[in-house]
Amino acid sequence: MGTSAVTVVEILAILVLLQSALFCCSGANFNGSCIKIEREALVKFKTSLSINSSDSLPSWEGDDCCRWEEVTCENITGHVVKLDLSWASVQGKVSLHLGNLSNLQYLDLSSNNGLAIDSLHFPSSLKYLNMRSVLLDKCDNWLQSINMLPFLLESDLSSCGLSITGHVSHVNLTSLEVLTLSWNNFNSTIPNWLFNITNLQHLDLSYSAFRGSLSTEMGNLNSLAFLDLSYNSLEGKIPKTLNKLCNLSELHLESNKFSGEISGPFGNSSSCIQNSLENLNLFNNSFSGSLPNNLGQFKCLKYLLLSRNSFCGPIPVSIGQLYNLDVFGNLPNLREFNTSSEAGIPDPMAISRQLESLETLDLSMNAFDGFIPSWIGESLSLLKVLNVHSNKFEGEIPLQLCSLASLQILNLANNMMTGTIPTCFGGFTAIVMHENRGLWDYQVSYILMFILKKIAMDSRLLETAADVEQNLNKAQPRIRWSPSSPRHEMFWIVQ
Question: Which part of the chain is the Leucine-rich repeat-containing N-terminal plant-type domain (predicted)?
């Protein structure tokens, strides 16, 4: 019994001695917390920089680099795992070689606009990399350096002056989920190696001078939830393979040169993309043809922006099934509807009476004809902006518009309307920008009506007002002013 107790005590004593020995040995390596070789790597990096402020990196002194600001170490081993020098006012042209920080997982050098790097070497342990606004235009090995990071999860290389140099035969970025390459000047087609990063969930290539057609291999990125290709020079048709992106919730294709019909990727009623897509922006392209009849099956859609294209034909009635739609469509939650298109939509809207919360209705620059629909005044009681300029509307202003008590901007320019102004629009202050022209009986080429309510116009209304002022009515109808007395505070008439 006693012998066993002694043996246990001896074993415990040996374990304590071993732990102390291990602590001492490891302490010799990192001076209590900071590992010597990693401290030297940080000091070398700081020495290569031009510090733009006396407040930048003042704590980078002493032996314990784990106590330095912007440096984070792992508690047990003392390895540097995080280096955050964003907005640190550092400058200089340096070669970034941080391979000795062998356990570094997080590196952020973003928003140091005076920092330029001509050569990169990262530790393979890196998981998060942010180099936004760091100049890398002289760094020919940026792609190869990034490709050597198998554990990288997120990388932001926006506004770095990047171009496509060289290629990679095999992509090692098997863990990468977020990649931002926006605001660069690639001036090339989208490189094929991107389509092999199949774990990508967020890809932003906007504002980067990409050109050419969009590869069908984009459909390989079936983990994508966010794809932004906007403000490039991409052209041709959208590949049908996009309908394989079953997790895609946001798709930004605005301000490119895409053409053709959109029924290919979006017109297949069995495609899985219709179950996930929330934001579809096709603004300012050259798309043509009719809108897909199955748009109503995109149940998650909240934003649908189609203006500045060449769509034709009727707006599908199925849009009325999109009960989550906030911008564009046909529902009680809708706040803004914009179909501006120089080519126009020849048929009137098939949707009409389900826009109970609509505040902005912009049908301008289309080819709508006939009379202004009476349902606008009957159903859109919260309407603040009605813009129908540059269509083929004719006839008189419908009396039902008198019911729009919240109306602030009404633009009827560039139509073929005739008749008298409804008496319910009396009470305006009329301004004729032409001498010796009678106020009550005259030829007009432009009509702008809006209400000033304590000058509480938001930016959207002001932009709309500015747009209104640039449009002149082609027709020259004789309109009689019949004043009465209601609520509108300003009526502006310009010859």
Answer: 38-73
